[in-house]
Write a structure and sequence with these properties.
The chain is of the alpha+beta class and about 300 residues long. Helices cover about 35% and strands about 25% of the residues. The strands form 2 sheets. The chain has an 8-stranded mixed beta sheet with strand order 5-12-6-11-10-9-8-7, sandwiched between helices. Strands 1, 2, 3 and 4 form a 4-stranded antiparallel beta sheet that branches.
Length: about 300
């Protein structure tokens, strides 16, 4: 079974408060013992996936067997149970399956649209970044080290917010995160689960911050990556990533998910770490809401 960070009670509590929502745990178990579990978030508009989560929090446990066909049938039966529950809840918004569930056929057979999307995952045996990693990564990291940059795993939220704010202004993008969110997350999750890697220049000024979501014996999730504009070309981002992977080597992490590689510039930067390109699926009900969004997307692309 692949454990999900998003099913931690502390994280669920954060989502309830940040999204002004309530949650309902759900589990379905076959007589054989095969199990699927998740948590549904709802607000006054209905069921939804919080924007702070790259994927739905889903865990699937299949009964061990040496016959692949039986494993497939188990998953399809569990998937069908999830579909029935989604319909009961009048599901009408997008939902993303985690990469650990690469078979979306039960959903397409049920009349949903399953759109493939992509992420990069570094598996534990590759945390050393010796195979497949672009030579530009260590070269840029060495450049930053020579310039006096250092990386520390600490709890300096002011440094993290400095880098987040600079990144948001530069990219005209809103993480939907405030200093209060960061403090609240650190208080609820603790420094072991909310891992903050802050990089500083030679004068001690914040330059780059990586914030990841860690759970024992689970894939570690990238959450926030931010570099102050004046340090973009220093190599400090690569130095911080190497420090992150060095730290994960000492844990029970089952991998590191970059949580998305669907924008060309972002995908190119993440691919240089030699990670495995991994698909996942976004589910959409074929209803009026989806068709309206699809039409708007076409108009924007047509007249951009």
């Amino acid at each position: 079974m692949s454990r999900s960070f998003y099913l931690l009670p502390e994280w669920i509590g954060l989502m309830e408060q940040w999204c002004q929502a309530w949650s309902e745990p759900w589990e379905f178990r076959r007589e054989s013992g095969a199990t699927i579990r998740t948590v549904f978030f709802s607000n006054r508009h209905g069921f939804f996936q919080p924007p702070y989560m790259a994927y739905a929090g889903l865990e699937v446990e299949l009964t061990p067997t040496e016959q692949p066909a039986r494993l497939t049938r188990q998953w399809h039966e569990l998937g069908d149970a999830l579909i029935r529950e989604l319909r009961r809840r009048r599901y009408n918004r997008w939902l993303t399956l985690p990469p650990s569930l690469p078979d979306a056929r039960p959903f397409t057979w049920a009349g949903m649209l399953a759109t493939p999307r992509y992420t990069y995952i570094v598996w534990p045996q590759d945390f050393c970044l010796e195979k497949g990693c672009s030579p530009e990564i260590p070269r840029k990291a060495k450049k930053a080290a020579k310039l006096g940059y250092t990386v520390r795993r600490d709890q300096n939220l002011d440094a993290a917010w400095h880098n987040i704010r600079s990144t948001q202004q530069r990219q005209d993008f809103d993480y939907q995160i405030s200093p209060d969110h960061l403090r609240h997350a650190l208080d609820k999750l603790g420094a072991d689960r909310l891992r903050i890697y802050n990089a500083y220049d030679s004068t001690g000024q914040p330059a780059c911050s990586l914030i990841v979501l860690y759970r024992e014996r689970a894939v570690t999730m990238d959450w926030i990556a931010a570099t102050a504009t004046e340090h973009l070309k220093s190599g400090v981002t690569q130095l911080a990533r190497l420090a992150l992977f060095d730290d994960l080597k000492t844990t029970s992490s089952e991998g590191f998910d970059f949580c998305g590689a669907n924008i060309p510039s972002v995908a190119n930067a993440k691919s240089e770490f030699g990670a495995a390109l991994t698909p996942y699926f976004q589910l959409d009900p074929l209803g009026g809401r989806f068709l309206a969004r699809l039409t708007l997307r076409w108009i924007r692309s047509r007249f951009a």
